[in-house]
Structures are given as structure tokens and as C-alpha cells.
Amino acid sequence: MESPPSVSSKLDNTALARARLKRLPQLPIDDFKIVFRPSAGVDLAQYNDVELRAAVVANSGLHSVVADEDLVCTNLAKNIFTVSTSCADRVANYAKIRELTLRGEKLGFHAYIAPPDGAWAGIIHRAWNGESPQDLLQALRRVNPLLTIVQARDMGRTSRSVLTHFMAEEPPPSVKIFGILYAVFNFRPKVEACLNCRQVGHRRDERSRVTAAYRRHGLPATTLEHLLFPSRPHLPALRSLVEFLDETGIVAYR
Fold first, then answer.
1. Can you tell me whether residue 200 is helix, strand or coil?
2. Crossing angle for the helix pair 208-216 and 236-248, to the nearest 10 degrees
3. How many Å apart are CA 137 and CA 100, to the nearest integer?
4. How far apart are CA 113 and CA 195, in angstroms?
5. d(CA 173, CA 185)
6. Alpha-carbon gap, residue 249 to 162, rounded angstroms
7. Sheet strands (E) in the chain
8. Residues 6 or more apart from 234 whose CB is under 8 A from it?
9. H-type helices in the chain, by residue range?
10. 157-197: per-residue pLDDT in tens?
């Protein structure tokens, strides 16, 4: 199968900023949504939705005709994209994907099934021991029959917490799983922060503002060391870049 036409890897700064701030289209409410988050260092702005969709279908094991009704929507502000499907049988095919081949390069992705609208999120601490999301959900449903649990998954390899979604007007105080009674805590989304520029709202792998500043001043990304060590001599273009970053607050730790 021929690969879809690609776009230039260097997008115009104005076009890229407009794409990140644009209003996202509303996906079908009744569809299942599978969210894909790339590994650190992967910028989805370098790929178009046609490329992403083709890579997802190719790695899902589904025939292109079967997946023809499924949709892809990219959220550049969060550096994620969502696959929307009305078929429950195809959800597992998408959720099991761990890497996508884009422009001949294999890139790592973390895929998870998004909870339904209106679901309440709760955290169960120290409850995960390597189980898959399917095993967690089955275990919770089996011993908590009075609760409508729609999703359960781990919070990442570095955490033992389980994120659980309930369809209820109020959260349950506790749940049982694996023979242990756990308290359920309200889930508060973590504020994303960049360790490079000390700003909130984006992660370290989403340094679009800093990268754009480098390109406008015609400087390579390796000049970041000059920003960290202002005592070193700077080129005229670099001095203007330092002033720009100071004025915009991107480098607030100098």
C-alpha cells in the first residue's frame, strides 16, 4: 500500500501556532475513543492526520476497508491524537498499539481508552502490580457489583496507583480488589510543566515556543547552553534571543 503524501517537517511558525490554538472538532458522542500519546521527543505537529491514520490502521491489524468509518483527530496543544470508532470490536485492536511507523521510522506511543463523558475519576493508591487494564477492570467489576466501573488502568510504570472511572453521582469511599479494601481519592489532573523552560502548560518534549524562537533567530538548538550560562560570550543574534526569552518569560531561571 502506498504511503500517503507527507507535509514538510518545517512548518511555518504562524501556521503551527494557529493549528495548536484551533478549536477541535466534536467527535461522535457515542463512539469509543482511544487516545494516543507519543514518547518523549516526538512532535505530532510534524505529521498530518492522514499519515497518523494510515499508520494506526497499518499497525492495528485491521483492513483499511473495515476501519474506513473510524476517525482521527489531533490535539496539537496536548501533543496527542484520538481515534474514534463506533465498533466495540475494533477498540482492542487500537488500544494494543505500542508503536507506529511514520516516514519509515518506528515511534513509541502509549494508547489508552478514554472514559465516557460524565464519568467520575478516582485514584486507588498502591494497588497496581503489573496487571493489564483489562485484568484490573474485570477484577474491580467482579468484587464490586453495585458500582458501575467503566475503566481502570495503571498510572504509568513509575507509579503503583490505579486510575478508575465510575458512572455515579458521587464517588464511592472505597473499593475492593485482589482481596484488599482500598480508599478511593478524587483525581486531580496533573499540571503539565516543562523542566527546560520552567513554564506550565506543556511538557519538556513540547518546547514549541523555544524551538520557534531558535528558528526565528537562525540558531541551532544547541545554543541552549548559552542561556543556562549567561556569563559566556554571546553572539549578537544570541543576545537578541536571550532578550526575547527574558521578555516573554520563557527562561525565568537565569
1. strand
2. 150
3. 26
4. 28
5. 8
6. 36
7. 32-38, 71-75, 80-85, 99-102, 105-113, 120-124, 149-154, 162-166, 174-177, 180-183, 185-186, 193-194, 199-200
8. 226, 242
9. 13-21, 49-60, 88-95, 133-143, 208-216, 224-228, 236-248
10. 678 899 998 888 778 999 999 999 999 998 877 666 666 66
Task: Tell me the residue type at 28.
Answer: P
What is the topology classification, in CATH, of domain 120-186?
Alpha-Beta Plaits (3.30.70)
Let me know: does 79 contact 88? Beta carbons within 8 Å: no
Summarize pLDDT for 59-104 with one digit per residue, the tens: 998 888 888 889 999 988 888 999 998 887 888 889 889 999 999 9
- The amino acid present at 19, given as its one-letter code, is A
Residue 136 corresponds to which amino acid? L
For the domain spanning 13-113, the CATH number is 3.30.70
Nearest-angstrom CA–CA distance, 190 and 230? 32
> Any idea where the domains of the chain sit in the sequence?
13-113, 120-186, 193-248
What pLDDT, in 10s, does the model give residues 16-53? 555 555 567 788 887 888 999 998 788 888 898 899 99
In angstroms, the CA 23 to CA 168 distance is 30
Q: State the Cα–Cα distance between residues 151 and 114, nearest whole angstrom.
A: 8
pTM of the predicted structure, to 2 decimals: 0.54
CB neighbourhood size of 9 (10 A): 10
Provide the sign of the torsion angle of the four alpha carbons 225, 227, 229, 232, taken in this order: positive
Q: What average pLDDT does the chain have?
A: 75
**Grid coordinates of 16:** 503551527
Q: Which three cell numbers stand for residue 164?
A: 478508575
Residue 54 CA to residue 67 CA, distance in Å, equals 10
